[in-house]
C-alpha cells in the first residue's frame, strides 16, 4: 500500500488555494511550483536571483521534510514571466543541480502575482524508499 503524505510550508497560499507544498507518494516526492516568497514573513525580493535563492531554500525545506534532498531531484521545471531573467539565475541553479543533472524545462509564462519573477517545481525520489 502506497503511503501518501502532504507537506505544508505554512504559506498562506496553500490554505487559500487548497494545495500542499509537496506530496510524498511512496518513493516519489512532488514539490509544487515554489516562488521566492519567504513564508515566515510573506515577503518577496524584487531581484530575480534572490527570488531563485529563496525558491530553492523553500524547496530544500520541503525535500528535507520528505526525507530527501537536491541530490534526489530527477525533474525540475523553471517558470518565468520574462525569459531574460533566466540566465542571471544559472549560477544559483547550477550550485544546486550541477552535479545532479535532473531533466529540466524552462517555460516563459505568467505567474499568479506580478511580484513573482521565477517559480520552480521539482520531482524527486526518496533514497530510503528505493
Can you walk through the features of this model?
- The longest helix has 19 residues.
- The model has no long low-confidence stretch (mean pLDDT 94).
- Helix 2 packs parallel to helix 3.
- This protein starts with a strand and ends in a 5-residue tail after the last strand.
- A hairpin with a 4-residue loop joins strand 4 and strand 5.
- The protein has a six-stranded mixed beta sheet, covered by helices on one side. The chain has a two-stranded antiparallel ribbon with strand order 4-5.
- It contains three helices and eight strands.
- It is globular.
- Helices cover 29% and strands 32% of the residues.
- The protein has 130 residues and is an alpha+beta fold.
Top keywords for this entry?
130 residues, two-stranded antiparallel ribbon, single chain, 29% helix, alpha+beta, six-stranded mixed sheet
Q: What's the topology here?
A:
Elements: E1 4-7, H1 12-18, E2 22-25, E3 28-35, E4 37-38, E5 43-44, H2 48-66, E6 73-80, H3 86-97, E7 103-108, E8 119-125
Parallel strand pairs: 6-7
Antiparallel strand pairs: 1-2, 2-3, 3-8, 4-5, 6-8
Helix pairs in contact: 2-3
How far from one another are the termini?
15 Å
Mean pLDDT comes to 94
> In DSSP terms, counting alpha (H) and pi (I) runs of 4 or more, how many helices?
3
Lateral arrangement of strands in the main beta sheet: 1-2-3-8-6-7
Helix content: 25-40%
Give the biggest beta sheet.
6 strands, mixed
Describe, in short, the structure shown.
It is built from 3 helices and 8 strands; from the N terminus they run βαββββαβαββ.
Amino acid at each position: 500500500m502506497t503511503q501518501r503524505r502532504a507537506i505544508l510550508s505554512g504559506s498562506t497560499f496553500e490554505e487559500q488555494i487548497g494545495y500542499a507544498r509537496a506530496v510524498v507518494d511512496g518513493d516519489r516526492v512532488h514539490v509544487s511550483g515554489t516562488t521566492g516568497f519567504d513564508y515566515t514573513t510573506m515577503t518577496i525580493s524584487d531581484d530575480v536571483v534572490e527570488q531563485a535563492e529563496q525558491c530553492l531554500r523553500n524547496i530544500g525545506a520541503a525535500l528535507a521534510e520528505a526525507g530527501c534532498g537536491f541530490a534526489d531531484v530527477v525533474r525540475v521545471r523553471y517558470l518565468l514571466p520574462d525569459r531574460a531573467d533566466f540566465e542571471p539565475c544559472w549560477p544559483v541553479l547550477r550550485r544546486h543541480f550541477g552535479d545532479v543533472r535532473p531533466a529540466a524545462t524552462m517555460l516563459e509564462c505568467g505567474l499568479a502575482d506580478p511580484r513573482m519573477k521565477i517559480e520552480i517545481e521539482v520531482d524527486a525520489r526518496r533514497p530510503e524508499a528505493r
